[in-house]
């Protein structure tokens, strides 16, 4: 049987990779890509604990809802990015400063 | 045995493609590496007896979200704004200077130690190592979704409808008046 700490390690690694992508990239689409990594890490944790600790299927349900919310978030976020590109002709994150002041 | 082989292949796929998605300069390649990572996570779900979640992961992420991100990259040009002289080892489009990384490393070590101490009480969960039989979870998940979790199920349909209509309204080209 695979030790469950392996799944937790992979999940933590994915979370760190997603955080690094979100911090290092300047393109808004790349930042949304980092969010996908982080959501996947959370869903993997839910399914892992559902098998090894809880012995029921609630973790699977949570993972499914995480997938649904990730889909909705990606659709709305990318729509905002495309609309922003139509207005400002750039997707640099530092140019999006209309709400400052 | 099959589970071990699948786990090793999926774990190596995840580790390799996620690091590649971090260090590549081309954002289109980054999306393709995200595809590999999602397929690897789907393999891990199969090793965790979660077949329905694995199939849903492939259908929604690979068939929907990655394609959507590829279209967004293509529609917005896909520039990555790499600034010269601020890269680590010439690979990644990272920010900051060398002192940023040194302080970040020490800070991460300190906070990681504190966090590991805190989490070490939680990790000692009772784990039984009896091998469970692999069986389909689709029927049980369907029953759970319409009995215990029916409110969240209906609310997610409302959320998806709102996201659909909202994104269509946001991305619509407006007439200048």
Please give a structural write-up.
The complex is a heterodimer of chains A (101) and B (177). With 101 residues, chain A is an all-alpha fold. Chain A has helices at residues 4-24, 28-54, 58-88. Chain A has one domain (4-95): Helix Hairpins. The model of chain A has no long low-confidence stretch (mean pLDDT 89). Chain B has a domain at 1-78 and 92-119: NADH-ubiquinone/plastoquinone oxidoreductase chain 6, subunit NuoJ (Four Helix Bundle (Hemerythrin (Met), subunit A)). Chain B contains 6 helices and no strands. Chain B has helices at residues 2-23, 27-47, 51-75, 98-123, 138-147, 150-170. Chain B is extended, with a radius of gyration of 22 Å. Chains A and B meet through helix 1, helix 2 and helix 3 of A and helix 1, helix 2, helix 3, helix 5 and helix 6 of B.
TL;DR of this structure?
The complex is a heterodimer of chains A (101) and B (177). In chain A, 78% of the residues lie in helices and 0% in strands.
Keywords:
heterodimer, A: 101 residues, mainly alpha, 3 helices, 0% strand, elongated, B: 177 residues, Four Helix Bundle (Hemerythrin (Met), subunit A), 6 helices, 71% helix
Report the β-strand fraction of chain A as a percent range: under 5%
**How many helices of chain A does DSSP assign?**
3
Shape of chain B: extended
Structural class, from secondary structure content of chain B? mainly alpha
CATH architecture of chain A: Orthogonal Bundle
Number of strands of chain A: 0
Spans of chain B with pLDDT under 50 lasting ≥5 residues? none
The level-1 CATH class of chain A = Mainly Alpha
Strand content of chain B: under 5%
The quaternary state of the protein chains shown equals: heterodimer
Number of continuous helical runs of chain B: 6
Determine the CATH topology of chain A. Answer: Helix Hairpins
Write the layout of secondary structure elements.
The complex is a heterodimer of chains A (101) and B (177).
Chain A lengths: L3 H21 L3 H27 L3 H31 L13
Helix pairs in contact in A: 1-2, 2-3
Chain B lengths: L1 H22 L3 H21 L3 H25 L22 H26 L14 H10 L2 H21 L7
Helix pairs in contact in B: 1-2, 2-3
